[in-house]
């Protein structure tokens, strides 16, 4: 175990708040257990030497009879059993507490990260972090580290003591250990690269399979399933090859490590055969060899543990990258604004080198109904994300009621702001659980009230289980219109002063769209409402229309005035309705 491994383990332990002392006690018990495991051989050596090879007639001599030796073995066994029990108990419970605390901190870290950071990678990558990588790190603490340290420390302590009595044999094995370890150390960089290549290949294959399942309807309709499957098969073959390389570079150094340790034992056997020519010497030498053989057993195990440790450390590196991501800054004393007007003051946001909004300056009066329009990629949704503080701008300030968003704090912002997304963001739970996300303290009467306002109470009551009906993953057990109205009911239940609508009416027919507009006018009349819309006929009654292009505000005004300008808004209108 090198410095990097220790630093990696210490990073996890430092992040954790529970289980540290319990884990260390368990590790200590495991080491003592390993030492006790070897003690019977030492006493056997002592007993044979005193009672068989050098018998004495003194009745005061200790450990002369077989009964004495049996009694000592029994005591050692009982003590070993106690340390084994508590070692397993404390090391396992301590490791699981450490990892549970680590998981909680990692989840809290993700909660405080800008959502723009999370969208840089495929969503499946974060799923694998929690399903696979964190499980490997947990394995370091629950199995690898306790076994590795006990298998290494206990034999080394006894070998050092043994070297004092038999310097040639003990010293020879002690010399062989660093030589064998060097083979493991020499291959570490290649092994780390192979691990990365394997993880990358596996990640690409998993992402392809996930994308294939997501787009299966489209692929079938366009007769592209065969081509996509060929692509998946090619990546699966690459993953298999990388897995085989990993096994080769993982098992090869371990085999060499074990062989070098066994060679040390072979040389010791030859030494005994050459050095001792009488019966007493051979018995003594044989006992020495038996002890060395017993000591080499746990030492050989360390090679396998080191390979498992390397795998776990690569996973810890990925988790540590998430832990070190820059999170949203939060105020020590959050403030609540007295008003709800919204201001963008020369706001610029860049992500992955791409400018999403550029020096954007906007003023939205409290209670105004604002529409944001523009071509795809013009920065409309980014504007909403900045108001909800899903990301902080690189330059400029976003303000609510005269206070910057970092002054207000994320929790207060999310109390002030409700957002209805284009994909509605329903979870795999009951209808009532999805609506109660808006306000967990709401009564069933309040839930029914907002459902009535959102025109979804009628269809819910017709369902066999009513409000207890599960919506399925992403709400797929409901129609698009039903999902939309449940999302709207949830927003009504939260009753925030600022409501953001992100193209959530884009898939509606004209009648449903008019119904939605009526719902918004009736129930959000006194709220600051900002709607991102693709269909311009849905926002003709807005108090102000903001026209975006390439992250900049190109035009603003009411519908009729913008048409009269004959500018970008007029061109968009003409493209849709003429």
From TrEMBL:
The way it spans or sits in the membrane comes to: Multi-pass membrane protein
Ranges where the ABC transporter domain occurs: 342-575
Q: Return the InterPro entries for the record.
A: AAA+_ATPase, ABC1_TM_dom, ABC1_TM_sf, ABC_transporter-like_ATP-bd, ABC_transporter-like_CS, P-loop_NTPase, Type_1_exporter
* Entry superkingdom: Bacteria
GO cellular component terms, alphabetically, are: plasma membrane
Q: Which GO terms describe its molecular function?
A: ABC-type transporter activity; ATP binding; ATP hydrolysis activity; ATPase-coupled lipid transmembrane transporter activity
SMART domains documented for this protein:
AAA
Q: Where in the cell is it found?
A: Cell membrane
Which coarse location class describes where this protein primarily resides? membrane
Tell me where in this chain the ABC transmembrane type-1 domain is found. Answer: 24-311
Which UniProt keywords are present, listed alphabetically? ATP-binding, Cell membrane, Membrane, Nucleotide-binding, Transmembrane, Transmembrane helix, Transport
Which residue ranges does UniProt annotate as crossing the membrane? 31-49, 69-90, 144-162, 168-186, 248-274
What Pfam families does this protein's entry cite? Answer: ABC_membrane, ABC_tran
Task: Write down what this protein is called.
Answer: ABC transporter ATP-binding protein
Q: Which organism is it from?
A: Pseudoalteromonas phenolica
């Amino acid at each position: 175990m090198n410095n990097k491994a220790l630093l990696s383990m210490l990073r996890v332990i430092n992040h954790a708040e529970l289980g540290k002392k319990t884990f260390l006690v368990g590790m200590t018990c495991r080491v003592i257990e390993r030492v006790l495991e070897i003690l019977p051989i030492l006493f056997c050596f002592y007993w044979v030497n005193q009672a068989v090879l050098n018998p004495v007639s003194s009745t005061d001599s200790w450990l002369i009879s077989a009964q004495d030796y049996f009694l000592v073995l029994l005591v050692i066994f009982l003590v070993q059993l106690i340390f084994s029990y508590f070692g397993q108990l404390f090391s396992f419970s301590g490791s699981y507490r450490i990892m549970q605390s680590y998981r909680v901190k990692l989840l809290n870290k993700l909660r405080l990260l800008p959502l723009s950071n999370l969208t840089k990678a495929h969503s499946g990558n974060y799923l694998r972090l929690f399903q696979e990588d964190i499980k490997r790190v947990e394995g370091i603490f629950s199995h690898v580290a306790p076994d590795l340290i006990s298998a290494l420390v206990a034999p080394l302590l006894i070998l050092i003591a043994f070297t004092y009595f038999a310097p040639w044999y003990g010293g020879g094995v002690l010399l062989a250990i660093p030589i064998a370890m060097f083979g493991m150390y020499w291959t570490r960089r290649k092994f780390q690269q192979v691990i990365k290549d394997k993880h990358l290949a596996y990640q690409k294959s998993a992402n392809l399979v996930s994308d294939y399942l997501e787009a299966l309807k489209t692929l079938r309709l366009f007769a592209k399933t065969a081509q996509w499957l060929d692509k998946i098969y090619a990546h699966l073959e690459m993953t298999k090859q990388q897995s085989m390389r990993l096994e080769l570079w993982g098992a090869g150094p371990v085999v060499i490590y074990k062989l070098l340790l066994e060679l040390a034992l072979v040389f010791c056997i030859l030494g005994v055969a050459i050095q001792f020519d009488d019966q007493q010497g051979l018995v003594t030498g044989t006992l020495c060899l038996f002890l060395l053989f017993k000591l080499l057993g746990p030492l050989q195990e360390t090679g396998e543990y080191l390979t498992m440790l390397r795998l776990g450390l690569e996973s810890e590196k990925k988790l540590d990258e998430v832990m070190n991501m820059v999170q949203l800054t939060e105020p020590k004393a959050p403030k609540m604004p007295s008003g709800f007007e919204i201001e963008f003051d020369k706001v610029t946001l860049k992500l992955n080198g791409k400018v999403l909004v550029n020096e954007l300056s906007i003023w939205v009066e409290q209670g105004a109904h604002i529409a944001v329009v523009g071509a795809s990629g013009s920065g409309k949704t980014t504007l909403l994300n900045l108001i909800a503080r899903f990301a902080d701008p690189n330059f400029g300030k976003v303000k609510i009621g005269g206070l910057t968003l970092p002054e207000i704090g994320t929790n207060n912002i999310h109390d002030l702001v409700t957002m209805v997304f284009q994909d509605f963001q329903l979870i795999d739970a009951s209808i009532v659980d999805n609506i109660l996300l808006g306000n967990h303290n709401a009564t069933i009467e309040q839930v029914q009230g907002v459902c009535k306002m959102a025109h979804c109470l009628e269809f819910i009551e017709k369902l066999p289980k009513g409000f207890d009906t599960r919506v399925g993953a992403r709400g797929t057990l409901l129609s698009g219109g039903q999902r939309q109205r449940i999302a709207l009911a949830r927003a009504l239940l939260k009753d925030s002063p600022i409501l953001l609508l992100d193209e959530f009416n884009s898939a509606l027919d004209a009648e449903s769209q008019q119904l939605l507009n009526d719902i918004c006018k009736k129930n959000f009349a006194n709220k600051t409402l900002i709607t991102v819309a693709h269909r311009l006929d849905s926002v003709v009654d807005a108090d102000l229309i903001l026209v975006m292009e390439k992250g900049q505000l190109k035009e603003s005004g009411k519908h009729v005035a913008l048409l009269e300008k004959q500018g970008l808004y007029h061109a968009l209108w003409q493209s849709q309705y003429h």
